Amino acid sequence: MDTAFASEDLAFRDEVRTFFAQAYDEELDSRLSTPDPKVYKQAIVEWQKRLHEQGWIAPGWPAEYGGTGWDATKSYIFETERAAAGIRDVVPFGLKMVGPVIYTFGTDEQKQHFLPRILSSDDWWCQGYSEPGSGSDLASLKTKAERDGDDYVVNGAKIWTTYAQHADWIFCLVRTSSEGKKQEGISFLLIDMKTPGIKVNPIVSIDNHHSLNEVEFNNVRVPVANRIGEENKGWTYAKALLAHERTAIAEVADSKRKLEQVREFARAEVNGGKSLLADPLFQKRLSDVEIELMALEFTELRVLASVATGGAPGAESSLLKIRGTEIQQAVQELRMEVAAYYQGAMPSELTAEALGHAFGREARQAYMYGRASTIYGGSNEVQKNVIAKAVLGL
Amino acid sequence: MNFDFSEEQVMLRDSVARFVQDDYDFDTRRSIAASEAGMSREFWQTFAELGWLSIPFAEEHGGFGGDAVDVMVVMEQLGRGLVLEPYLETVLLFGGLLQQGGSDAQQSDYIPAIIDGSCLGAFAYLERQSRYELADVATTASADGDGYRLNGEKVVVFNGGNADHFIVSARTSGEQCAEQGVSLFLVAADAPGLDKLAYSLMDGRRVVNLVLNDVKVPAGNLVGELDGGYPLIESVVMQAVLALGAEAVGIMGELNAKTVEYTRTREQFGVPIGSFQALQHRMVDTFIAYEQTRSLLYRAVCALTDAEEDAATAVHALKVMMDRAGKHIFGEAIQLHGGMGITDELDIGHYAKRLMMINTTFGNGDYHQAKFNALRYN
After folding, report:
1. Could you report the per-residue pLDDT of A201-212, keeping only the tens digit for each?
2. Among candidates A88, A46, A52, A83, which has minimal Cα distance to A67?
3. A322 touching B, CB under 8 A?
4. Which residue segments constitute the domains of chain B, with CATH numbers given?
């Protein structure tokens, strides 16, 4: 057992640190933090293209498809340095979700067409899983795809589709059979968002932002060539993807950075002439979270190390998802504590002028939208069902 | 980066696990706990023959030269078997103080005897008023001719009834709670002026209070520097907390496994109670608590082994987690075993009581969280 970095790893860490310091700046950061979705999209694509030029856009992918070929230690260093530099993660839908499905289960044509465009961020993907009637019980989905010559004709609706308004493509689970078990009649389709019959309806979320959508499909024609793998086997491919997704959702490195920020904000915040950080009750709340996070960081490393030696992220990814999102919410709650009454401020030019800072608003929006993290990617209760069955054998 | 055990460590783990499996079933343990000594000398010899008593000691004294990972591997399995024999007390505390701070003469006098099983030791560090403060030492040692004279009382001395020798913390200078001025002395169990009051703890362990009434020891019995015993205590205790962490992880794993197994077989309303989601989710929570504690154990062991700057932070964090996760896990284990969970007959309550004693040993969760906070936020 050994967790010390080798000198080669330390050199890599310096290389990553230098790259982030040079390639990422405050101007880009402010465009990425804007509430304006168009400015945000342009900025994140610009940043992802910089990462792509560097060859670091897809750490998890095999080298033959454009991945970095890093081991678990290097991937960990990269993620930690990214978060420590205050840089958000890449948009996951192409790079972390559908990309691995395509290189694992796709045809050569699909790989050649889609993978380079995901790596270069020329295609923006969104995820079509949940439906108005199918949330945690995902396999009950009803969006139907009926064969008509070389096409499927898709009818139905998907919901909670993040950034569908930006997307060029959507990957969808659709029902191709109503025979047998409900999991066995599902297929995995890649659908061009410009296809006639697709309508995107915005949903404004509890943080007052528009990132979520409902996507309607009315007689949308999708070439059969855009199906991943076999017909009615889509559930298997989606399940393989879910483990990757859940591991990514834990966001351990980002929580570390945010907790560090809470510590610094609390140090500067004065209550009755004393730093909030010196308050023993606040200290206790802070260390309750920090200690769980210190543990989860090593739980994640243990999972990464076992994946690196040939294991696949299985039910452990559910553990990471559960505790990772609980910690994210606990950190958001601490930020709200620090923000005090400023958490109430709504965004407007006048509030900006009146307060001179946006900390309270940002803390609240993160806190409110953060409620979603224990719901998406399979709710934490569903994750517990997964562990109960797969790990505990119940 | 890897979390794998070496081939030697796997063999060591399997050897302790096999002993627990084959020779240390719960009835055996119960009869050892009920015996006068509260331990089995015969098993202690087995430990010596299998080399377990040699693990943390340097090779020059016949030791195995092992590190914190080797100790962890052993302690986790001893925890699973709820083993009563005084490994922590004799090998890690008494032996650890000598290994880290003893003179050449002390090391060659005592370490080989610990390794061959003939010497049992104990560390007398607590006093009636000291609670968790290792530096709160009122027992005195004053110069007396070419040696020292010790007066005072030490309490809750683990393995005190069986120990052939003690290492006693005593004040040689400074105020009562000052770190500077604490010294350590070897005291033979049969030293004139040493009185022992023996009693038992809820986890089956035997302890004594030591009353020291003008106990004379030669100058050569001073362990480590005069007035400089505290850093030595701190360092050995840090290692001991890791060992207790491993023991606790072993116990937590057993409690979780036994609870899952019980809910698969216990039927109510015509079905195994493990089929109820309300219980499944609680068992998932205890599974997560267990994995998280193991992760912090690994983190603390690696940090201390690599002498990382934040090693003390990691050890404090581990002790906090052991306390919280331990109570959570044994609480759920008792609840899910229903009425059986509160009987003395079942092993569950005995695992719980050992975890409770581990929590109070070297400071409970709150004590370590305050230390953690002071390091991180002041």
Report:
1. 999 999 988 999
2. A52
3. yes
4. 7-119 (1.10.540.10), 122-227 (2.40.110.10), 231-377 (1.20.140.10)
Phi and psi at B206, nearest 5°, equal -100, 135
> Is-contact B294 B249, C-beta < 8 A?
yes
Contacts of A287 in chain B (CB under 8 A): 320, 369, 372-373, 376-377
A245 pLDDT higher than 70: no
Mean pLDDT value of segment A321-326: 96
* Helix B348-360 / helix B229-265 crossing angle, nearest 10 deg: 160
> Thinking of the domain A250-390, which architecture would CATH place it in?
Up-down Bundle (1.20)
A77 CB neighbours in chain B (<8 A) are none
Å between A362 CA and nearest CA of chain B: 24
Chain A residues whose CB is inside 8 A of the B307 CB are none
Q: Which amino acid is at B299?
A: R
Do residue A295 and residue B295 have CB atoms under 8 angstroms apart?
yes
Residue-range domain boundaries for chain A: 7-90, 125-232, 250-390
Nearest by Cα to A217 from A133, A150, A158: A158
- The three-class DSSP label of residue A131 is strand
User: What pTM was estimated for this model as a whole?
Assistant: 0.94
pLDDT tens digits, A122-177? 999 999 999 999 998 999 999 999 999 999 999 999 999 999 999 999 999 999 99
Does A1 contact chain B (CB < 8 Å)?
yes
What CATH fold (topology level) applies to the domain A125-232? Answer: Butyryl-CoA Dehydrogenase, subunit A; domain 2 (2.40.110)
Q: Which residues in chain A are contacts of B373 at CB distance < 8 A?
A: 280, 283-284, 286-287
Calpha distance B341→B338 (Å, rounded):
5
Alpha-carbon dihedral of residues A14, A18, A23, A29, nearest 10 degrees?
Answer: 80
> Does any CB of chain A come closer than 8 Å to the CB of residue B326?
no
Q: Considering CB atoms only, which of B3, B69, B284 is closest to A302?
A: B3
Cα–Cα distance for residue pair B79/B162, rounded to 1 Å: 21
